[in-house]
Amino acid sequence: MAIVEVTVIPIGTGTTSVSDYVAGIHRALEQEEAEGRVRFQMTSMSTIIEGELDDLLRVVRRIHEVPFEQGAGRVSTSIKIDDRRDKAGSMEQKMQSVAAKLK
């Protein structure tokens, strides 16, 4: 299982607010999660998605398209991929590992 951190930034929208675009991306991610292929967690600055790498790359492509569908003329998407193959991991497991070391 891999974890992707993705930031999708609509450009040329005529406003500094991006919450409508974020809401559209959230809806698309909810649909993907409902189908059981990925899990996601939104933060104030990016979105973290976990699943199989092929599914994650497909989902990133899908959410990259959302601002275009909402009228944005340009979209900049940044991606970080954590693909660990020596053992299974998850968003929760990574946080639990750090928490255990803080005790």
From TrEMBL:
<feature type="domain" description="Thiamine-binding protein">
    <location>
        <begin position="4"/>
        <end position="98"/>
    </location>
</feature>
<dbReference type="InterPro" id="IPR029756">
    <property type="entry name" value="MTH1187/YkoF-like"/>
</dbReference>
<dbReference type="GO" id="GO:0005829">
    <property type="term" value="C:cytosol"/>
</dbReference>
<dbReference type="InterPro" id="IPR002767">
    <property type="entry name" value="Thiamine_BP"/>
</dbReference>
<comment type="similarity">
    <text>Belongs to the UPF0045 family.</text>
</comment>
<protein>
    <submittedName>
        <fullName>MTH1187 family thiamine-binding protein</fullName>
    </submittedName>
</protein>
<dbReference type="Pfam" id="PF01910">
    <property type="entry name" value="Thiamine_BP"/>
</dbReference>
<feature type="region of interest" description="Disordered">
    <location>
        <begin position="83"/>
        <end position="103"/>
    </location>
</feature>
<dbReference type="InterPro" id="IPR051614">
    <property type="entry name" value="UPF0045_domain"/>
</dbReference>
